[in-house]
Fold this protein.
Amino acid sequence: MQKLVSMENMSVNVRSEYQSPIVATLAQSLKDGFENPEKLSGRCQFEFFEENGKIHFLSVQFDPAVLTLSAEPFLESDAQISMPLSVAEKIIANLEGVDYRDPDIIGKMNMSGNLHIVNHLAKALVKPSRATQSTFDDATERYREAYSMTSILYLDSPTELQILETIESKQPFIIRHLEANNGGQIKWTLEQLRSKYADVLLRVRSATEKETVADFIDKLMHLKKQKATDIIEGHTKVYTEGCSLPWQMIDDFLPHYFTPHDFTEPQIWLGSVPIDAPASSLHRDPLDGFLYQLIGRKKVILFSPDQARCLYPMKAYNNYQPCWVKPESANFDLFPLFKSARPVDVILEAGEILVQPAGWFHAVYCLDSPTFSVSYFLRFPVGVESSELS
Ligand SMILES: [Fe+2]
């Protein structure tokens, strides 16, 4: 059976013969979250296998006008994703919080072909929680007075109270003149990281690829210069892209303020990214974030939360909200409102921490390679009563 459903400027062609309710739910989530403002076309073959050898297919074809979902396999496709059906079940059980970097997910997937298409569909699958949506709505309302910010504020060795008060005033800022943690060091080199943490498991890339700190740093040290056009987010950068900071490394990279329990799990951003490609493309986070720079400099382009309509945020998102527009190469034909956006450019030096209140949009670029940062989010938003969180 086949039916056509009309979406904004797009038809969705749904064939509803999925034998697995898990695949049917996944197809429905894709349909709900799919957008195509860049007017791309492609075919992606999802394969979900059961322990008994049975394979379920989800075939996705899209062009600027139509999205077609089917349980019939393609003869040929541009991109392929395969995983156990149990992993698909884990994803749909937590669309509001799933993180594809989770080793229990990425470590059981295989992806091939056009990885831009894989990214496009993976991003369409998730959905925001009501709490995240209301954080962003609240940010848009409460941050209007920050709209006039034209340069970043610096705080020299602030107290925790000053930090909390400045976050509550909804202004981003940079902390300078940090004191070393427990007699440790503020600035690091790759050689120091390799010698101290060589055998620590850094990240899992797929069902067949795992990397230790030594594997990753050796690859980084022998890297030929990459071009921006070689970069596919999440796949081809020699960059850890915010995987969890290994627990063995936490003591050396504490955030200097508050206690580790005040923060969510820290993330590591280590590697090399060409200067004209984003290390992290434009997005916003629903928690107050700390970005601690340890090797090299980064450029961060900030936009206040009330500028959302100029930045084309994606409809489907969960733990952070990506935007369609790319500040480094904006297509004004597709995204004309971006002409009115007012960015604030910030240079973050090694030994400094950038603090961003929830809801500020940001894109991150590496001015130097290698680069190394650790990021933290405060577990509970500053200035929000706990009763408002439920
Ligand atoms: Fe972020």
Observations:
- Residues 1-7 have pLDDT under 50 and may be disordered.
- Residues 283, 285, 289, 320, 362 surround fe (ii) ion (CB under 6 Å).
